[in-house]
Amino acid sequence: MELLRRNSIKTQVIKSLLVLVVVALILRGGREQRSSQAKPTRPRKFESFEYSAMSCRAHSASLTEFGGVGDGKTSNTKAFQTAINQLSQFATDGGAQLFVPAGKWLTGSFSLTSHFTLYLHKDAVLLASQDLNEWPVLKPLPSYGRGRDAAAGRYTSLIFGTNLTDVIVTGDNGTVDGQGEFCDIQISNLTLLNSPNWNVHPVYSSNILVQGITIIAPISSPNTDGINPDSCTNVRIEDCYILSGDDCVAVKSGWDEYGIAFGMPTKQLVIRRLTCISPYSAAIALGSEMSGGIQDVRAEDIVAINTESAVRIKTAVGRGGYVKDIYVRRMTLHTMKWVFKMSGDYGNHADGNYDKNAFPEITGINYRDVVADNVTIAARLEGIADHPFTGICMSNVTIGLAKKAKKQPWTCTDIQGITSGVTPTPCGLLPDQGAYKSGGCDFPADDLPIDMVEIKKCTHRISYV
Q1: Keywords for this entry (predicted)?
Q2: 102 assigned to some structural domain
Q3: Catalytic residue positions?
Q4: What's 91's domain CATH number?
Q5: CB-based contacts of 108: which residues, under 8 Å, 6+ apart?
Q6: What is the pTM of this model?
Q7: 13 is in which domain, residue-wise?
């Protein structure tokens, strides 16, 4: 896919890419397929289940009907892709779902289809193949210009798709194990283990629900971000538990000149009821790849334990773009290095061709109703000389410092804002407006469109060998 040149090409690209990094599953249905050869009849199994989803399906099948073997040794890449390809015929006839029974299902990358549900049984485990031949290499994303961690392309995701709409990946807390040694979308009720890179990564997408996900990655592993909405609109992330070696939620929108040219922001994002553990990164990070812009992010009811920072904004000269209209409330934090951190010197450029005059705009950053304890530094807020970060508001924030906390709890340069009811006393660039008053750093009262999506109860019974 070429880099964006004209709006027509840009539209095609926007419609064509959706990447889900190590995600998984939802389904069960019923369709029988008999062999034409006489063979001993194996006893059939019956499963009944129900789940909540944006769409229910009219047709169902089990992976075993397409030759799937759940022994943890046999490759199921072909079985998954054959099943999905055949079930795609029902896209205009009520859609279809693929049920993954109990077992260990070794597989390489496979691609989903529209109007489709992938469902994992509670005792089903998807195991990512260690055979590189089962992982196609893709061109870099056009808003990045190169692979995020290597100059060339990128390996495809375990569960992948392009130009999709109405896709559900869920289960009864089934597991996707990345074995990390090496449209309308719903992702819910899954456990994701040991991803070698970003876990859930929707790109150039809209109307996304990520719900009830458990993500567990070794805390020593870099770049194992939990959930990364990237140039996406109308996204809801809720009721998730994330243990990670990197940011639990990282909001992105392209890298340097490539993200600026592509020009597709992440906006209308809801994050709620998140529990995060990340000793070396943030509960919520905005950037550093934010060159297409980030706007209208609403985070609430966040718990972070032994996490480096609660909310972090990462940007630099050359990024361009903006981070604005950010609202955070009701955070409960235990053992932090920083509660709030903003960095205007976060380097690591895509290449040497970035615009040295592309200054990011950081404005309208609101934090309220925050309680933290055992904190080393209250905040480190560092903007860009002659291009300060503005409109910072903190209200009703109580930060309990650790016994070995830094003597200077606040570091502030090139920022502007106000505070009300904040302890310890903020830096001079955030003047105190007096005791906390109701309404400070207001959180929006309106609902975003993703909050008005109707969730249905889907009930299925499936018979399979």
Answers
A1: Cell wall, Glycosidase, Hydrolase, Secreted
A2: yes
A3: 246
A4: 2.160.20.10
A5: 75, 77, 128, 129, 131, 133, 134, 135, 158
A6: 0.86
A7: 7-307+435-464
